[in-house]
Automatic annotation (TrEMBL):
Enzyme Commission number, as recorded: 5.1.3.29
Residue ranges the record marks as coiled coil: none
Record-given protein name: L-fucose mutarotase
Presence of the UniProt keyword Isomerase in the record: yes
Molecular-function GO terms, alphabetical: L-fucose mutarotase activity
Catalytic reaction list: beta-D-ribopyranose = beta-D-ribofuranose; alpha-L-fucose = beta-L-fucose
Keyword field contains Isomerase: yes
Source species of the chain: Labrys wisconsinensis
Keyword terms, alphabetized: Isomerase
SUPFAM superfamilies hit by this protein: RbsD-like
First-tier enzyme category under EC: isomerase
Classification of source organism: Bacteria, Pseudomonadati, Pseudomonadota, Alphaproteobacteria, Hyphomicrobiales
Short name of any one Pfam family annotated for the protein: RbsD_FucU
Length: 147
């Protein structure tokens, strides 16, 4: 256990978050997402849902607010303008750490292609529909350095 870190975050995910560079992307996916098929690096957290994992990751990962659309979800098939409860969960979690950042939704197949290029995919046990989000890592202006 470490102070200030949600214990839901496994060591391999912490390593990936630290290794990611500015502009790298990570996907947090629901239980129906083809994570094993598309992931270059896969982390499984099957015992937790989107809300818990997303909040834990966002507590550590700076979002890239220097470019448009650092947070991307998946559009509803056949109704691309519709927002599902999982979309609201994503937007709420993001608003806690980056109030100016909006969640953009993109076509499912485009999302899959982006996920295949992402630094890592985190597979959760989320059962809600459309509980998938792509996050782009930003930078920290003045990182805290222990002296």
């Amino acid at each position: 256990m470490l102070i200030g870190l949600d214990p839901i975050l496994p060591p391999d995910l912490l390593s990936h978050l630290r290794a990611m560079g500015h502009g790298d992307e990570i996907v947090i996916a629901d239980g129906s997402f083809p994570a094993t098929t598309v992931a270059r690096r896969l982390v499984r957290i099957d015992g937790a849902g989107l809300r818990r994992v997303l909040r834990a990751v966002l507590a550590l990962l700076p979002l890239d607010e220097s470019e448009p659309d650092p947070v991307i979800g998946m559009q509803v098939i056949g109704d691309p303008g519709k927002w599902m409860p999982m979309h609201a969960e994503i937007a709420e979690a993001v608003a806690r750490v980056a109030p100016a950042v909006e969640t953009k939704l993109i076509d499912r197949h485009v999302f899959y292609r982006r996920a295949a290029e992402a630094f890592a995919v985190v597979a959760t046990g989320e059962t809600g529909f459309y509980g998938n989000v792509l996050l782009r890592k930003g930078t920290i202006e003045n990182p805290v350095v222990a002296g």
